[in-house]
Amino acid sequence: MSGDGDLFLGVDVGTQSTKAVLVDVDSGSVVARAARSYDLIGGLPAGHAEQHPGTWTEAVIAAVREVSLGLGPRIRGVGVSGQQHGAVLLGAGDEVLRPAKLWCDTSAAEEAAALSAELGRAIPAGFTAPKLRWSAEREPAVWARVQRVLLPHDYINLFLTGEFFTEVGDASGTGYLDPASGSYDAEAVERSAPGLADLLPPLRSCAAPAGELSGAAAAALGLEAGTPVSAGGGDNMMSAIGAGATRPGVSVCSLGTSATVFAFAAEPAVDPGGDIASFRASSAGDDGVAGHLPLLCVMNCTEPLEDLRALTGKGHDELTELARTASMGEELLVPFFMGERVPNLPDATATLSGLRPGSLSPGILYRAALEGVALNLASGVERMRRMGIEPEEVRLVGGAARNPLWQEILATTFGVPVRVLVETETAAVGAALQVAAAVRDEPVDRIAQGFVAYGGAAVEPSADGETVERLARLAGRLAGAVAAQRTP
To answer: What mean pLDDT is reported for the chain?
Structure first.
């Protein structure tokens, strides 16, 4: 690769892998990529999902060394995206006291229900606050040694800079930060776990560099000490930057292990029922203050598709073609294989109904899975509309967004056109763009919009009345299935 311009490094520490990208802001391109994969800790009870934080740092070192080989002197900043809602507990000397409980860990469902009742608002089981109460009540000997509580991306920033801090976007997914004010909620902090107020990191701005690469981290990564590090944020917040959801009117749907729909808002957007998370953005609005990011998150997205691929022995492309020509009846897959976050049913199970002769064919089952996930997402999008978040179009990101049949189904269930972005690693790219904006003291929206490139024409909602009516009937049955699972 030729050239000698400035480069910015973005790192996304996810559930399945860590990805690193090098971005050339001036040319509007990603010039290098690398990734390292890993798994959850095996053998845990149902509902538990954990990883060792050391797994993340090892992956960061390997991916960054690969992507930056020979380019270290050109890297002007580092930004970190991380999986949200995790709980990293550190003791003396920043010793990791136990594996981190992840966003998809629902073992704290009882604690979440208790917190929700005490605070008078919904706290999902996947949020950080219930995990901390779980730790304090069920592992008191461990909790007694805790000196710092971090989110996953905070832990990587600690590794990079040696400093203890967080930022408002990722922190708004803990359950103990007030998203309207952008400060910790004293009552929620007190009720989450004993002594938590003394264990939380200070908040730093997303609009300015938050620290510098330490000598030890620089040596491990092959970069230069003193390189600016931005505040970073949660993967959804960073994906919003990478997808250009840095101004009102832009909605994004990310399809992966989980699925999200989010949109930038200048003012707080609150769902009275709590299904739509009232997150803060990790990007600033025109006033220089972090904006808002109302967000829908469902835990079940590609899991049923992967199960069907394994069951049938057929690839996703073949299954998609079979699904396109499948003669669909009233088959409905309620896709709650991992419990569910929205609707808030951590102990829910998946169901398949409306079967008839031939329904168990691969094509019908695969389409039922595509439709079931889409309908669950669409119910959340409709709730966002009632909050005043009206999408003009929905930008699709994530590996599963490439499925052309799913694009058509999503457009029809959302009721607006969908467009696929060329860039799939929007979280890692968003982290790079955030630090670029901070270092250059430029509005992140101006930089982000330069990276938005579409992979084709917009996909319009179906004009076939029978298809629209059938999906509407299935949506009604999905709502009934949700109500049934909520009934004791």
So the answer is: 94
